[in-house]
């Protein structure tokens, strides 16, 4: 979702690494940089399972992580904090898009 005039935009992209052999993410832009704030939060998929005895139980499966970032104008460490906030979601493990529910957006 990326419509002009809207307050929320959604983008999907591959992660850009800061160093070719490293695991750090490059979040710098020409105008500034995105800085992580707080701890990553877990994202769960909730399901109801029924066993042979017809007993139902709720199960939570960790599917990803959510990181909150704030945009700073300029270069670190002297950047100027803005009111732009981004929530970055990432899959945990090997996601399979074959397991999406029928009618789910792809």
Broad structural category: mainly beta
CATH superfamily: NAC domain
End-to-end span in angstroms? Answer: 12 Å
Instruction: From the 3D structure, determine the CATH topology.
Output: Metal Binding Protein, Guanine Nucleotide Exchange Factor, Chain A
Unreliable parts: none
Please give the share of residues in helix.
Answer: under 10%
What profile does the largest beta sheet have? 3 strands, antiparallel
Order of helices and strands: EEE
Query: Which CATH C-level class is it?
Result: Mainly Beta
Would you identify the CATH architecture? Beta Complex
Query: Rg, please?
Result: 19 Å
Query: Order of strands side by side in the largest beta sheet?
Result: 1-2-3
Number of strands: 3
Count of discrete domains: 1
* Overall pLDDT confidence: 84
Proportion of beta-strand residues: over 45%
Number of helices: 0
Overall shape: elongated
List the defining traits of the structure above:
single chain, 106 residues, mainly beta, Metal Binding Protein, Guanine Nucleotide Exchange Factor, Chain A, three-stranded antiparallel beta sheet, 0% helix, 46% strand, elongated
Overall description:
The structure is a single chain. This protein has strands at about 30-50, 55-75, 80-90. By secondary structure, the chain is mainly beta. The chain has one domain: Beta Complex (Metal Binding Protein, Guanine Nucleotide Exchange Factor, Chain A), CATH 2.170.150. It has a three-stranded antiparallel sheet, with no helix packed on it. The model has no long low-confidence stretch (mean pLDDT about 85).
């Amino acid at each position: 979702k990326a419509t002009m005039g809207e307050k929320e935009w959604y983008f999907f992209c591959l992660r850009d690494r800061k160093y070719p052999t490293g695991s750090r993410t490059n979040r710098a832009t020409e105008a500034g940089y995105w800085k992580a704030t707080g701890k990553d939060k877990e994202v769960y998929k909730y399901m109801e399972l029924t066993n042979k005895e017809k007993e139902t139980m709720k199960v939570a499966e960790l599917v990803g992580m959510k990181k909150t970032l704030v945009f700073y104008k300029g270069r670190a460490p002297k950047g100027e904090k803005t009111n732009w906030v981004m929530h970055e979601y990432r899959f945990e493990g090997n996601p399979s898009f074959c397991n999406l529910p029928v009618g789910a957006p792809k």
